[in-house]
Amino acid sequence: MSIETSAHSPLVADLARRFQEPPWLVQRRERAFVLYASMPSPKLEETDLRNRPWVVESIPSATTGGAGAAAQALLEGAKAAGGAYVYVRDGVTIETSLPRTLAEQGVVLLDLHTAIDQHPERVRRYLYSVVPAEESKWAALNAALWHGGIFVHVPSGVRVNSPIHFIYEETMAGKGGLPRSLVVVEDRASLSFAEAYLCHGERQEGVVHSAVTELVVGADANVTAACLSRYGKGPTNFFTRRAKLADNASVDWVIGDVSDGFTVGLVESRLEGPGSKSTTRGFGLGYGRQRLDFTASMDHFGHHSASDITLLGVLRGRANSTYRSSTHIERGADEASSEQHDRMLMLGSRARADAIPMLLIDENDVQRCGHAASVGRIDENQVYYLMARGIPRAEAERMIIWGYLQPLVDVLPVEPWRNEVASWIDGELN
Amino acid sequence: MSSPVLTIEDLRVSVEDKEIVKGLSLQIKGGEIHAVMGPNGTGKSTLASALMGHPAYSVTSGRVTLDGEDVLTMSVDERARAGLFLAMQYPAEVSGVSNANFLRTALNARRGEGNELPVIKFHRLLQQKMKDLNIDPSFAERYLNEGFSGGEKKRNEILQMSLLEPKIAILDEIDSGLDIDALKLVADAVNQLRSPQTGFLIITHYQRLLQYIVPDYVHVMMQGRIVKSGDKTLAEYLEANGYDTLKRELGIVDETVGAEA
Fold this sequence. Notes:
Largest sheet of chain A: 10 strands, mixed
Structural class of chain B: alpha/beta
CATH class of one domain in chain B: Alpha Beta
Oligomer: heterodimer
Number of helices of chain B: 7
Strand content of chain B: 25-35%
Order of helices and strands of chain B: EEEHEEHEEHHEHEHEEEH
Number of strands of chain B: 12
Shape of chain A: globular
Order of helices and strands of chain A: HHHEEHEHHHEEEEEEEEEEEEEEEEHHH
Mean pLDDT of chain A: 94
CATH superfamily of one domain in chain B: P-loop containing nucleotide triphosphate hydrolases
C-alpha cells in the first residue's frame, strides 16, 4: 500500500535527487505529498472511490520496449503535421522535437524537468498556479510525484500554426503514471496542441494514474487543446485539465475518450478575463466494464464571458458513464452567457449513462444560459429506414452512431489523430 | 433478366393486436403499375409497411413471395436487397450521415459484395440522377433528410428509388405535400423506370398523381381489404363520384378498419 503520512517521502527525495531539483520544488512536492497522504479517498456524487486502492511505488527511471501501435500512429501523425512533439513513455522522456522555425520565434517545448533547469523562473511562476495540490487527493498526488512532464511556452504575439503534440504512453512498467503538462501562451499568441494518454498492454491493478494539464492563456490569445485518452483496465485513472483565461482569450477544448478503464476526469476553463470565451466538445466511447465520471466545467468570472459545452457519450457492453456539464456564473460575471448540450447513446441493455447538467448562477445580469440533455438508445425508426434500403442492421447502427460522433471527431486539429481515433471507435463498435 | 412477380395471398396484418389488413390478395408483375386507392384509415399504408417488414406491423397469416422467394421470413434489409423498395410517407432524418454516404452504402448493399460501384462512378451517377430530379447538388452533402422540406424528402425517396432500381417499388402517398411541379418530376422518374424489370404499387388518396402515372390496375381498399378492382377508368370514376357512391354500391357505411360490424 501507499507510503502513509511521511512528511519526507522517499519518493519525493528520490525525484529531487534524480533531477537535481531546486529547493522550492522539493518543498512544493513535500507539501503536496503530505496533503495526498492526509486526504481521504472520497465518495463523489456518482462515484465511490472509498475502496479504490492507492498503490504508489518506486518510480521507474527507465522504460523498455518500443512504442505501441497507437503511439506509433500518433507519433507519425505528429511528424507529418509539423514535427513539434514530445513523447513520454512510463514517465521517461523518449523524444523531444521542435522545428527550428518555432525555436527561432522563441517557442519553448521541453520536458518539464529540463524546463526547470533552463527556465526556472518561468516554470516556478506558473507551475501549480492553475491546478493546485489542494483541490483533490489525485491532484495532490500528481503535484507531489509528477515525472515525465512537458512544458510549452509561446511568447507574446507568436502564432504557432501547426499543432504541438504530447504523447504519453504507459505500460506495466509505468506503475500508474503521473504526467504533468504546463502550457503558457502569452498575450496575443496562439497555439493548438494535441495531447494523448495511451496505454500499451496490461496494466497493474491498484496503481493510480493521475494526469494534470495546466494551461495559462494571456490576453487576446487563442488556444485549441485536443486531448485524447485510451485507458485500459487495472489502475484508477484521473485527469485534471484546466485553463485560466485572461481578457478576451479563448480556449477550445476537444476531448475524446475511448476506454474501458475506471476514470474520473475534469476539464475546466476559468474564464477570468472580461470577454474571454471557451468551448468544450467532448465525446466518449465506453465499452467493457468501463466506468467514467467526467465533468466539463466552465467557471465564469469575467464580464461578458461566454462558454459552450457539447458532450456525447456512446456506451456499449457494461460501460457506465456519468457526463456532467457544469457552468458557474460567479458574481460579477455580468452579461455572461453559456450553453450546454449533452447527449448519451446507449447500445445494448447493460450499458448505463447519466447526463447531469448543472447551472450555478450567482449573478443577476446573465445574457443567456441554456442546457439540453438526453439519454437514450438508437432510434429504431432510423435503423428501419436504413435497413429498408438494404443496409444490414449492424452497419445501419454503426452509420447512425458515426453520425453523432463524426462532427466531434472532425474538430480534432490533426488528421492522422482523427484517423487513429476513428480506427479505435470502429474497432470497438465492430 | 426475367420480369419480377410479387404475389400477396390472403395477407392479414395487425398493429398492437388490432387487425388492420384483413385478407388481401394481389399480384404485381414487372412492367405493371398498380394503384391502391381509398380513404384514410382503410389499411393502405399498413399494407406498404408490412410488405417492407416494419417491426411494428405483424403479419398474422398469408403469404408474400417475390419471384417465388418467401418475403415474410426475410429481414427488412434482405427484402430490400431482394429488390423490394418502399418510398416512405415519413422518411426518418439521420443527423451526421450525408445523403451521398447513405446512398452509396445502400447502392453497394443492393449490388452485393464484390460488385460495389467505384466512388467516382457513383458520384457521376448520383449527379446525373439529381439533375434529372431537379435536385440541388448541395443535397448530396446534406445530412440525410435533416431539415428537408416535405417535398425534398419525397424527392429524396424517388432519388433513392431511381438509384436502387428495385424489382418492386411501393410508393406510399408519394404525392402528399408535393406541388404540381414536384409531382410531375416524381411522375417522370417513375415513368422512366417503367420497364418489364420493375413493377409498381402506388398508394394514394387522390387521382391527381394517376394523371401523370397512368396505372394498369386500380384497386380500392376499404376495411382492410380490396373491395373493387378495375383499370384506370376506376380512378377517374372515383374522382368524379367520390368514395361515397362506391360505398353505397357496395353497402359499406363506414369504410375505416374496425367499423365493418
